[in-house]
Design brief:
GMP Synthetase, Chain A, domain 3; four-stranded mixed beta sheet; three-stranded antiparallel beta sheet; OsmC_Ohr_Peroxiredoxin; KH_dom-like_a/b; OsmC/Ohr_fam; Peroxiredoxin
Length: about 160
């Protein structure tokens, strides 16, 4: 089975106007039927616009979303009552040798479950989700998983 997800990336400007200083790194990512995403390089040494999504942000969001959706599907399959999921994701950009790359992505969700839910089973499904998340399977970065499981108060 093959699925294709088309998108386009639009940038306009010039890289040869040396009187204007650096060129713009601002662009727009688009996909049919979806809202546009304003993208750029990260700020600081990369010269981008920190008010726009950068590739590191988007990689972290892609992994976190894929992992969450896979976890929720597994939780449903084994009849776990998950009530909420808030992930605190960190993407670490590092230099090894002379190569800069994403070296680690940390997923640290707070997973809220119904009273009486087996926390060990929740953790097991969270870890199992990593084996099935196709974005995670596509990465060479270390994925550090640090879930925190909370039981919600009865009646919520």
């Amino acid at each position: 089975m093959t699925n294709v997800y088309p998108l386009s990336l639009r940038w306009e400007g010039t890289t040869t106007d040396y009187t204007a200083g650096e060129h713009s790194r601002a662009a727009v990512a688009s996909a049919p039927g979806k809202p546009d995403i304003a993208v750029s390089a990260a700020g600081g040494p990369y010269g981008g616009d920190d008010t726009r999504w950068n590739p590191e942000d988007m990689l972290g969001a892609s992994l976190a979303t894929c992992h969450m959706l896979t976890f929720l599907a597994l939780a449903r399959k084994v009849h776990l009552d998950v009530r909420g999921y808030v992930d605190d994701v960190q993407v670490v950009l590092g230099t090894e040798g002379k190569v800069t790359r994403v070296t680690e992505i940390r997923l640290a969700p707070t997973i809220r479950v119904a009273p009486g839910t087996d926390a060990a089973k929740v953790r097991e499904m969270f870890e199992k989700a990593h084996k099935y998340c196709f974005i995670g399977l596509s990465l060479t970065s270390t994925v550090r998983m640090e879930p925190r499981i909370e039981q919600v108060a009865a009646g919520t």
